[in-house]
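[job 4471] stage=fold_predict status=RUNNING
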Amino acid sequence: MLHKDLWMPDKKLYAEKADIAAGKQDHPAFMWGVGVQLSAMAAASTLEPEKYMAPMKDYADAIQVYWLKHDGIEGFDVQPGPKASDRYYDDNAWLVLALAEVFELTEDKKYLDQSLATFRFVMSGEDEKLGGGLYWREVEKTSKNTCTNAPTIVSALRMYQLTKDEKHLETAKRVYAWTRKTLQDTDGLFWDNINLRGRVDRRKFTYNSALMIRANCLLHEITGEASYLEEAKRMGLAAEKQWIHPSGAISDSGRFAHLLLESFLELHKHDKDAHWQTLVTRCLVHLHDKMRDENGRYPHRWDRRRPGPLQEVMLLNQASPARIYWLAESASRPKRGPAKKEEPK
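[job 4471] inference complete, writing structure tokens
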């Protein structure tokens, strides 16, 4: 359904929105939606490579039209050019993570090179104002947001895992320390941002805490330090209390909420507590049974929707459930061990 509604064959890109009744598509998707869609295709390729690997690679190549050099550094712009630069550091952090997955699946070094180049742009958003941290936007440097800093930590850790370059681990630990000191509440969850006057926006969204859960899981995996996993579990329980209804409804937008469910899967991977997988299953059953319209399209929120079929769809709102469905299916399948060698006859 997502592909049917939003694919733009002439551009080999996905549209930002589609008017279902009129059968009309909007402009190519903003970079945020691109990152989620590429990650959804990567998750699909993990389970069904024969069907999804080639389209995933084609899309990863097609989005090069968003790549822009500005002020001496290259990165993904919010829309294809030619246009004035309007790059977001958080958008690019999502692409670092998505391209890292594409590299792992294809073993094609060009995707690792692209991920590293994108990470260099992300890190150009760091300075010493407010004691450190990264900005949200390149042009309007007015706030430093968890939605940039948290995926940057995860990106740095993924770059360390793929390259074994110690500077990436050092970067992750530096940004992690700043983010916790500046933007973490006492319950373990994270506020949205701090502006340059030092005022903290205390709103909480699922994805901000989700990426910090993943950061702690990865730091535990890399360093072996138990304190990171304990912190991840503390945050996971606080996030469940804050956002998950007993029915499985999640009190947030799906574009944020899918990342919280992904963080629960990461917790299950590391602490082996079946609670997290059971929780994800309950949420996805509710999403599938209660939130979809009769045509299989998904709304903006994951705790309520208007009756009747959706008249307009956005890539973000459709790619987000696709990503987490594929990840949950992958996590539920037993891991295959190495193939046994045949005994010589």
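[job 4471] summary: The CA atoms of residues 103 and 111 lie 5 Å apart.
[job 4471] exit 0
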